[in-house]
Amino acid sequence: xxxxxxxxxxxxxxxxxxxxxxxxxxxxxxxxxxxxxxxxxxxxxxxxxxxxxxxxxxxxxxxxxxxxxxxxxxxxxxxxxxxxxxxxxxxxxxxxxxxxxxxxxxxxxxxxxxxxxx
Length: 118
What we know:
Protein name: Holin
Strand content: under 5%
Shape: flat
Number of helices: 4
Keywords: Membrane, Transmembrane, Transmembrane helix
Largest sheet: none
Order of helices and strands: HHHH
Helix content: over 70%
Number of strands: 0
Number of domains: 1
């Protein structure tokens, strides 16, 4: 298995943990070590990816769309469970929807471009 795929698999639980911390644990005393553990894990993943990742590899459009849908689904779930983002990340934030729209448009554009070149 290529390192890029392993990094994507490891990134998903780290991102999920960061969102859980933001929505539910940021006000809990003693939970700061969780935040730092996740941030250090994310930083290590980035550094290792720089050294072990393939040069010129890109995120697949399907992965980009799937990750975007996953993040929005988590935000919806955490909101329904009564969580509130300490950083202001919410479904009512227009900046979130601009980023989601741009991400999806970019993924669709890259997918169509890849189809034409293959």
